[in-house]
Request: fold
Amino acid sequence: MSKPKVALYWCASCGGCEEATVDLTERLFDLIEAVDIVFWPIAMDFKREDLEKMEDGSIDIAIINGGIRLEEHEEMVKLLRRKSKIVIAYGSCAHLGGIPGLANAYPREEILKFAYEEAPTVINPDKVRPMKKVTIDGMEFELPEFLEYLKPLDEVIDVDYYIPGCPPTPDLTWEAISKLLSGEIPPKGHVFGSDKSLCHECPLNETKPDEIRLEELKRPHQVILDRSKCYLAQGVLCMGPVTRGGCEALCIKGGMPCTGCFGPLDGVYNQGAKALSFLASVIDIEDEEKYREMLEKLGFDPIGWFFRYSLAKGMIYRKKRDGE
Amino acid sequence: MSDGDGFEPTIVVFACHWCTYQAINLAGTSRMKYPPNVRVIRVMCSGRVDPQFVIEAFKNGADGVLVAGCHPGDCHYVNGNMKTMRRTVMLEKLLQDMGIEKERFRREWISAAEAKKWVEVVTEMVEQVRKLGPLKLAEKREVVMNE
Amino acid sequence: MSSEEVEMEGACPTDEIRIGVYVCHCGLNIAGVINVKEVVQYAQNLPNVVSAKEYIFMCSAPGQDLIREDIKKCKLNRVVIAACGPEMHEPTFRAVLEEAGLNPYLLEMVSIREGSSWVHYDNPEAATEKAKDMIRMAVARARNLEPLEKMRGEVKQQALVVGGGIAGLTSALDLAERGFEVHIVEKRPVLGGHAARMGQLNVEGRKIAGKDLVNYLVEKIKDNPNIHIYTNAEVSKVDGSIGNFTIKVKIKPRYVNNKCTLCNKCVEVCPVTAPNEYEYGISERKAIFLPFDGAYPSQYIIDPETCTFCGKCVEVCPENAINLDEKEKEITIEVGGIILATGHDPYEPPIGEYGYGLSPKVITLHQLKRLLSEDGPTKGELIIDGKRPKNIVFISCVGSLGTTPNANQYCSRMCCSASLIEALHIREKYPDAQVFFVHKDVRTYGKDESLYWKAIDNLVKFVRFEESPKVTVDKDEVKVEVKESTIQERLVIPADLVVLVTGMVPPKEIENLRSLFKVGCGGDGFLKEAHLKLNPVESLTGGIYLAGTATGPKSIAESIVAGSAAAAKAASLLSKDTIEVEPIVAVVDEDKCSGCGICVSICPYGAISLEKREDGTRVSKVDPMLCQGCGTCGAACPSAAIQQNSYKDKQIIPQILAVFER
Reply:
């Protein structure tokens, strides 16, 4: 019986998901023993043509992380989709767009202009921009196009399962992959992790007061948190209530409030909107002037607070600017 | 940015049953005229208006969204409108950061007797949004499946 | 116009959604503007619509018949009626559904009259298009409606009245006279509250003693078989909800039983003295004492805080009525409704405020009333520091209207009238006494206006201040310094007696009451009524009513009125065997609920609580009897676990999407 064939690939990614895979430590060796890694350009010398040569559907599981930002990403994931039976969107970027998805708040031109012309450390008086094709010494070089928007994986190809997190924990990764390898196939579209929010498994959930009423909000850098009590109850935004659990509340245990990387629960259309809703609900200010002042002083940034990983998910689009 | 000829905006309204919805009825029984561009969704309390609803409305084609409830202190359910107040103030900032003009999203307190206010708000909002033109949200390219 | 038959498709499986749409002409109200035929044709082509009809007056008998027949004939399981709005005929049409065997909550009404034809009559095309949109939205919502059942709870036909003051006694008597069993729980050892100690009251010119007023009620109450009185008792636990409360009451020991003959021998030998709270501290009592003459129950009581348990009283008691080993008792009562008549405390000035506590010449209005009462420590003679005072200065608004740093912002209503009554009393009894009334405002409102003019006629000198007056105490001399705001001159009044007219504040146990009964307090600390005008004697918690000064300063007459009002409201609850509650309440999907507690924090009715699952994790539970159906929990729930029946996400979101599915 031949070993299952596994492919791993990264798109617009920070490399953290690769680190998470490596963080499997000893279990990584078990994984390598149990499967046949047929494509993993980050770790070994695989080229695109290796993938093209494979038969359609011959890869059992393709694990893809990173968001779709470049033309190359789009091409590669479509190719992987053809060649694979199961595709897993691994990590927040593939699942929701992740941090790079925050770029969707800006038009493409603005991003490129900043990166190549306006950034404080850039010296580019001739306003040189990268080109899709260039010929040097008779050789043609191609660069992939920088797409209009960053998309999560499932807006480009059909995705079977999601392993959420920024990055997913090694335990969750191991659990998900071993489940699939053992033949325990969940329904299509299943997101691994808990079916309840982080509060359910958070060690500080019981320390919440009977009623959470926040007289003011604080930014995490403005307060030294009492690590034995619920962070939300201390006045800082913790995305725990609105975020899928299954991460063992590692950030909480590390003294940091949850930032929402596992994404929303089933039944929630828009994680960021729900986060806005619950936070606004438990603030205990009824004077609108006072409330606006508090938010102003705090530097209220709803995109960064509520949509840190999920802006690209397609629930809210920014308005097209003139000329777009 | 001005509209093309004949652009008629669609404004989605979330109205609370005890105050705004009664004002809408009163405007009806008083035969007050106002632009036909609003589509009203009734809820028992403005506190039921989930920010997800506002975003779904814009995402699916609303040119403007109005959330209307009882005046502070008058909420039939004590303080549902206070939650609405806080949520809509945050939503304002979120929509602004995403480039959506502030005239397109409004929150008003309209009591059961204020049919006149309802008519004024609707008329003003429709006009302002008509001048802004259709809300062109950044579109994603076609989702391609199973290539 | 007759009803129109529209071609029906062949029979479909019955587990499919089958919607009937009925468009009313409402005479010409709708049909005069909207093209009804076009609308009906449009509706017929919507997904899941198997029947679309029109009629001239859908609410008429033939209109209702049409719908009823159609439901049966076309095997409908959802109904949309496009006509006037739900506030007009929803109950009518719900009944039609029920008669046809369909759950009445599978109905959606959409107002194309108030919402379209009546307001867009200048633009029939737009009105027709809008009507189509409205129906499409209603159909989208109707597709996802679910059958619901009204909830019923039992009602225990007994009441609890917390507080045996004037308001509580009035409530209890009113309820008992209606035939309900009433339990009065009073924290003090005697009934009557502050009213019993108020000395003379001014009731439209006639003088009545507060004690007599109380006695009038007590006479009717004490032998009433429907009323159970527990004094020296406090509520310790409240479980349950409207219609069915389980109350635990702790009855503290009196140490003296009803064999007591009031012979007073125990008082003579008692070695301990303490300030007498029934005289507002101007005289003293022993550790064993009778609260006041004519009090009910008329029994002595030992105050365990000051008693040394030396046993001398036991030795001398001829009836052996004293038992120093008496223990606290706990009883449980089950009631359907609760009236909180828990009263107020008088504002206690801090030591030094206007000289309070620094001289025996500075007293409060309550203390003055005791002195001037015939049953008081001086038998009604005004004797201060051994002498009869000649210059008497009342300072009003003490602790109110923001006059001092400690003061409340609100006005306590009654103090002006109450103090002017005593000012007139003094002028009448001691014609040579000079009485000054130093005030920020004089608010002898309503029928008490005459008190003000009478005081002027009786040479009470009114001195108005904007800046708070100063009271200086220099050994034996007390002076009141005030800048009169009319003549803008500083006056220094040497005073033989300064009377601080203090207002009402919430009782010191208010926090405890709040959390025991889960009733809210307003910003001023008093218990909060559901709505000042629409619901003035109900609290926000179902089944709990509020009476008297518990909700804020009131006169005795107003407290009595409130007591009766609360009893009337309670009676309308208690007179039923069961209560029915509309089912548009919140429900929790326990598989989704993570026990984050957000919903618990924001429910204004305290209808949601966290309970432990078997595995120790928490989950939210809604008490459908307390839930009022606002839906704010649903909007805030970060897991979309709690949803409001009839206004679920899956019912509203399709309605939004339907706006644009043209």
In short: The CA atoms of residues 14 and 49 of chain B lie 7 Å apart. The beta strands of chain B are 11-16, 38-43, 64-69, 105-109. The longest strand of chain B covers residues 11-16. DSSP finds four helices and four strands in chain B.
